[in-house]
Amino acid sequence: MRLVDWVAGAGGELLALAVPVDCVCCGAEDSALCPACTSRIRHLAREPFRAEGGAPALMDVSGTILLPVVAAAVYRDEVAQGLLSFKRHGQHQLGASLARALAGAVRAATADADGFVLVPVPTSTAAYVNRGFSPVHLLLKKAAGHLPGVAVVDALRKVRPSGAQALRWTGLSGGQKGLGRGARSQRVRGSMRVGVRSRPAVAGRPCIIVDDVLTTGATIGEAARALHQAGAKVRGAVVLAATRPPDAADPAPGARMEPPKRP
């Protein structure tokens, strides 16, 4: 975990003590997330579900699953409001509640089996500079406390675009929001790699990619490509929220992924 992420989390806690705050979801006073909205997030995330069916970049033209994804909740209501505010400010109270939901999705995906490696998706340089922290890394750090026997490896790094990539991305200026499947896949292709020092930690090991929100699946697909290239055995991905509800997702029962193979 990067030092600046820890500092951002600690700073958020101190700010909450010093400055009166209102609930980001309902406006109740004296708490960034009131008890009622905390309970509501817990309710919305009570049944993690398979979500790759709503992510076109993770399915082939025949509808075959390329990578399974488990989501803690649908990106709506208090989950969406809480995550959006957390991504902007990194409040401790929000992070604790959202991290519990994320941990629940990991447990559903792994069926509480140990041996998995959780690999967070890296944030963009621009977003990191703007926020001063990585929301996914902070959430996963908090969630890890609820996940004994599961390792977290910060293996993925953003890649500075080559000349050809820079030219390709020039026509896709702005953020990814609003881009379709093809445009998102084109924008992120070749944008990640596994750090040299992290390769031994993921090579040959069952890995689960972790991100905050699933939309088209292009970002998770690129993370899987980079991990595969480093020799990792990518079992799937877990996200806090998916933009498509479960009735638009894969109908396969349950959320469990393939467990690690025992020697």
User: Which structural class matches the secondary elements?
Assistant: alpha/beta
Measured by DSSP, the beta-strand proportion falls in 5-15%
Task: Count the E strands.
Answer: 8
Low-confidence stretches are: 249-253
Main beta sheet, described?
Answer: 6 strands, mixed
* Distance between the first and last residues' Cα: 30 Å
Q: Say what oligomer this is.
A: single chain
pLDDT average, as an integer? 84
Radius of gyration: 18 Å
Q: Give the number of helices.
A: 10
**Shape annotation:** globular
* Topology as a string of helices (H) and strands (E): HHEEHHEHHEEHHEHEHE
Proper CATH architecture: 3-Layer(aba) Sandwich
Plain-language structure description:
The structure is a single chain. Helices cover 41% and strands 15% of the residues. By secondary structure, it is α/β, with parallel strands linked by helices. It has a single domain, classed as Rossmann fold, CATH 3.40.50. The chain has helices spanning 3-18, 35-44, 77-89, 92-110, 125-131, 135-144, 163-170, 181-188, 199-202, 218-229; strands at residues 49-50, 69-74, 117-120, 151-152, 156-158, 192-194, 206-214, 233-242. The two termini are 30 Å apart. It is built from ten helices and eight strands.
